[in-house]
């Protein structure tokens, strides 16, 4: 249960990174792209997200268990510990919570950030700096796999929709359309990505009576689906993203399908409402070929040795150094006379000392008792 | 219902197009930054990647990499980091000469920019592009990053070196590092100095 995070550097004072800080919210957005909640201008990438969350502002009244229980609502927790070394406001504590899954961490952050908790206000942020190299690798791999899978599903569904629409205007069909009851056979091989049309936020039940549709509906209860991104639906209080594209805040139902957005919507397109840029909007849209050409010209002009040396393993004399420059190690010139200055001085002094008793041969040396200070 | 869904999709495309247009039309840097950040965040959702690709937002982001405004660079590279997870976007970025534009940003002062650059480079690694991505200069840069005090930078560079480079490439780059690895000043070496 309570397992300390075993890391050799956990005794170091943690850095306060800029990504832990809350940024000021942006107040100057025009209305059409202003979200429901005031947000700062920030871009989320997979690098900023993590299974590790830091929770600040927890009142220091012994509510660690309650905090962990609250976090656990969003997914299984692997480890947690108080971050005593992190600077905290008076009478508050800071905790590190490591979730089993990134999606759980995402959900927890969304739900707990800026929320009150036992009289205090929590500030929750990702702390990817606590990851190991392996954690980071797995995180990137999972993310890549998820994106590839989602894009394939979306592409496949659009193909199927296109085929379905093409089949639609064919009344004399060898197999007569059977709107009701649904035919589950074609759907059985795709349990997770059903081609059936999902009801939108419970607005309407699965409509079997759409003319000419071959799509059946699974008899199983539908998996949790994402709401339309711009529709304000109070029944399901979890929009997937807002007008600022803040998908990173989207929560998921932490059921068997742990990746967000696994339920998909079929894009039933009527042939007359084909999604293409209308001529009116094309007039506003400036083609980017000029920019492309400019960039190509810019690329061609300075002959970057980096481009030329792609086949070689050796960094040429003239190739530009990539990345930050390290401070150069001190250059040591063994021929430099100054290296011997001290040696000469010592030798000279020794010579002088050695020559003193010869000048005064008569003096007797008295051994005085040494005074120890 | 089908019309509702298709209109949803059309609305979404329209909205994204409006954002792109605003970005291109406005002179106000603050508004540009906001819109750029929005587009970069929308790039995180696979659902939008197709639309953004059609709107040539990959080129828009690539254009940002040569801007003076460091926010433009950071947000643009964040968008590329997000979009390059998709194979088709990745191929578009490669076709538009993305690799040198991204590697140039490895010397940025901003950590987020550098992190996005490393991740984007990893995403852009294909069998064909690997020689360019794992150019000796880049590998040396990653070796230096793997000694950094920043854990995120260390981790990402570590993943790059382990996943994208061969052992031979890393060994060769180590040998060629100026001054060798052991005399690096100012960067605390971990107890186990092997990368």
Any overview of this molecule?
The complex is a heterodimer of chains A (373) and B (195). Chain A has eight helices and six strands; from the N terminus they run βαββαβββαααααα. Chain A has helices at residues 64-72, 102-112, 133-167, 185-188, 279-284, 289-300, 305-308, 341-359; strands at 52-59, 77-82, 92-99, 116-117, 120-121, 123-126. Chain A has a four-stranded antiparallel β-sheet with strand order 2-3-1-6, covered by helices on one side. A two-stranded antiparallel sheet of chain A has the order 4-5. The relative contact order of chain A is 0.09. Mean pLDDT of chain A is 68; it is low at 1-5, 172-219, 222-239, 250-283 and 303-313. By secondary structure, chain B is mostly helical. The longest helix of chain B has 24 residues, at 2-25. The termini of chain B are far apart. Chains A and B meet through helix 3 and helix 6 of A and helix 1, helix 2, helix 3, helix 4 and helix 5 of B.
Q: How are the SSEs placed, and which strands pair?
A:
The complex is a heterodimer of chains A (373) and B (195).
Chain A: E1 52-59, H1 64-72, E2 77-82, E3 92-99, H2 102-112, E4 116-117, E5 120-121, E6 123-126, H3 133-167, H4 185-188, H5 279-284, H6 289-300, H7 305-308, H8 341-359
Antiparallel strand pairs in A: 1-3, 1-6, 2-3, 4-5
Chain B: H1 2-25, H2 29-42, H3 46-54, H4 57-64, H5 70-83, H6 87-95, H7 98-104, H8 111-123, H9 130-133, H10 136-145, H11 151-164, H12 167-176
């Amino acid at each position: 249960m309570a397992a300390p995070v075993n890391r050799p550097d956990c005794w170091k004072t943690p850095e306060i990174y800029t990504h832990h800080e809350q940024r000021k919210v942006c107040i100057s957005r025009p209305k059409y792209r202003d979200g429901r909640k005031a947000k700062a201008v920030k871009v989320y990438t997979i690098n900023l997200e993590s299974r590790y969350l830091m929770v600040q502002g927890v009142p220091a009244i012994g509510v660690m268990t309650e905090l962990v229980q609250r976090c656990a609502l969003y997914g299984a927790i692997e480890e947690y510990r108080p971050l005593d070394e992190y600077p905290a406001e008076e009478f508050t504590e800071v905790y590190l919570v490591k979730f089993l899954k990134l999606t759980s961490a995402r959900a927890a952050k969304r739900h707990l950030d800026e929320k009150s908790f036992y009289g205090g206000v929590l500030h929750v942020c990702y702390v990817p700096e606590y990851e190991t190299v392996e954690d980071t690798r797995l995180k990137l791999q999972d993310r890549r796999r998820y994106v590839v899978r989602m894009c394939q599903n979306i592409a496949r569904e659009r193909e199927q929709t296109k085929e379905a629409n093409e089949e639609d205007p064919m009344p004399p069909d060898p197999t007569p359309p059977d709107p009701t009851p649904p035919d589950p056979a074609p759907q059985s091989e795709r349990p997770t990505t059903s081609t059936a049309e999902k009801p939108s936020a419970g607005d309407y039940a699965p409509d079997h009576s759409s003319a000419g549709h071959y799509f059946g509906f699974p008899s199983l209860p539908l998996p949790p689906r994402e709401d339309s991104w711009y529709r304000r639906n109070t029944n399901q209080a979890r929009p997937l993203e807002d007008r600022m594209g803040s998908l990173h805040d989207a929560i998921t139902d932490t059921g068997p399908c742990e990746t967000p957005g696994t339920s998909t919507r079929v894009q039933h397109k009527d042939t007359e409402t084909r999604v293409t840029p209308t001529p009116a909007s094309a007039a506003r849209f400036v083609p980017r070929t000029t920019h492309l050409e400019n960039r190509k010209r810019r690329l061609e002009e300075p002959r970057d040795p980096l481009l030329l040396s792609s086949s070689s393993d050796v960094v040429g004399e003239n190739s530009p150094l990539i990345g930050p420059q390290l401070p150069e190690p001190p250059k040591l010139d063994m021929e430099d006379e100054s290296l011997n200055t001290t040696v000469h001085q010592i030798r000279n002094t020794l010579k002088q000392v050695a020559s003193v008793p010869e000048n005064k041969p008569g003096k007797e040396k008295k051994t005085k008792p040494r005074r120890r200070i | 219902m089908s019309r509702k869904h298709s209109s949803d999709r059309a609305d979404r495309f329209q909205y994204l197009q409006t954002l792109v247009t605003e970005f291109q039309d406005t002179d106000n840097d603050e508004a540009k930054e906001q819109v750029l950040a929005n587009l970069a965040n929308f790039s995180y959702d696979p659902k939008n990647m197709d639309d953004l690709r059609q709107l040539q937002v990959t080129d828009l982001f690539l254009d940002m990499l040569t801007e003076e405004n460091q926010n433009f660079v950071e947000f643009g590279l964040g968008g590329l980091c997000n979009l390059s997870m998709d194979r088709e976007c990745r191929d578009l970025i490669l076709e538009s000469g993305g690799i040198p534009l991204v590697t140039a940003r490895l010397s940025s002062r901003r950590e987020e920019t550098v992190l996005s650059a490393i991740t984007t480079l990893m995403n852009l690694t294909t069998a064909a592009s690997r020689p360019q991505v794992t150019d000796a200069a880049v590998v040396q840069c990653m070796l230096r990053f793997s000694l950094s005090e920043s854990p995120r930078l260390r981790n990402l560079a570590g993943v790059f070196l382990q996943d994208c480079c061969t052992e031979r490439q890393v060994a060769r780059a180590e040998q060629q590092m100026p001054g060798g690895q052991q005399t690096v000043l100012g960067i605390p070496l971990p107890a186990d100095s092997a990368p």
